Structure of Large ribosomal subunit protein bL19c:
Amino acid sequence: MNKWIQKIETPQLEKLKSEEKSSVNIGDTVKIGVQIREGDRTRVQNYQGTIIRRHNNGLKSTITVRRIFQGVGIERIFPLYSPAIVKIEVLAQGKVRRAKLNYLRNKKGKAARLKARS
């Protein structure tokens, strides 16, 4: 069964990998434009935060973005190749030595900052 799914997903994934969506890394500060439908209108809502984890699974790849809003940490999981994601803009690249940045959940303020990658 898995061979059949991979056979269908591979050409679609190759076509989508040419976009900048696959170039985001853990520790990057990103601005993600999400398309939102309200009734018969659609609009783009931006979500800005730090990528703390990435789950690579072909077309089902996801990233978890964390931001602090009014002193409360908010995490949101985005499907990387979803048609609802209009754009992903990398604002800053962070220098990290871990694959998952779960330790940032316990940090606040300046302690939650990452060094810039040069």
Notes: The chain has one domain: 2-104. The longest helix spans residues 2-16. The helical segments are 2-16.
